[in-house]
Amino acid sequence: MTVKIVTDSTSDLMSETASELGITIVPLNVHFGTEIGTETYRDGVDLKAEDFYRRLEQSKTLPTTSAPAPGTFAEVYDKLAKETDEILVITISSKLSATYKAAVDGKEVMKSNARLEVIDSLSAMVGLGLIVISAAKAAKAGASLDEVIDVVRSSMGRVDFRLAFDTLEYLRKGGRIGTAQAFLGSALKVNPILTIKNGLTEGVTRVRSRAKAVDYLGDFVMGFPDVEELAIEDATTPAESEVLAERLGSRFPRERIYWMKVGPVIGTHVGPHVLGVGVLPAK
Questions:
Q1: What is the pTM of this model?
Q2: Structural domain range at position 202
Q3: What is the DSSP string of the chain?
Q4: Which of 21, 147, 169, 170 has its CA 20 to 30 A from that of 269?
């Protein structure tokens, strides 16, 4: 039986990619406060990215997010166990979200006897997405659960990505800013470049304009001599993604690029204008 791969919605994988590779995505939750109470939406299920960013701009208060309940994971596990006896779950960094704990707790209440392992990716967004893609490809090629776990560990050690921001206010308000705190308070209009290292947000550098930020992301990718997988991710600026893809076109045809969209949960913490690239270097 083929190993089934499960991840959460902070992987920002497009539904087409998930479907093609047989990846099951468990949604986190977004909560909007209203005058009559709180409205809760499942990330990418009840609330799509386009509708979320439209509402984010209109909202007077920042929405909040929460991990799936353990029971939600357990339901997914039991459903998949009807199709396989081996399941691998790969989640967002446990240092950024309670989702990993919920996935582990879900294992305790599942009813089936399938072998199931949960891995903390120590990543998120395009980084998590590329790790999950590598796992799904291995599973689809017939690898055993232990072999897929080895692939994931290898990918975790190699994956690298950069995110360009126009503001860090969303990260600051959401408490996910990490060492990029040092980039706050600048009087200059700069574009911070961030990544995730050891499970936490980390500042890399600052550039003076959005155009230079896009150039930086392109140079980052071109600096790798050999790339196994490449992904481009944006929230509300697909035109910038296209500029990046064109710049990288001499080495990376469009069909080699995975396109990702910053979903509502991640968007709550990074804002509507983040742009990123992710690379899984060849071994």
A1: 0.94
A2: 160-281
A3: -PPEEEEEGGG---HHHHHHHTEEEE--EEEEEETTEEEEEEBTTTB-HHHHHHHHHH-SS--EEEPPPHHHHHHHHHHHTTT-SEEEEEES-TTT-SHHHHHHHHHHH--S--EEEEEE-S--HHHHHHHHHHHHHHHHTT--HHHHHHHHHHHHHH-EEEEE-S-SHHHHHHT--GGGGGGTT-SS--EEEEEEETTEEEEEEEESSHHHHHHHHHHHHHT-SSEEEEEEEESS-HHHHHHHHHHHTTTS-GGGEEEEE--HHHHHHH-TT-EEEEEEE--
A4: 21
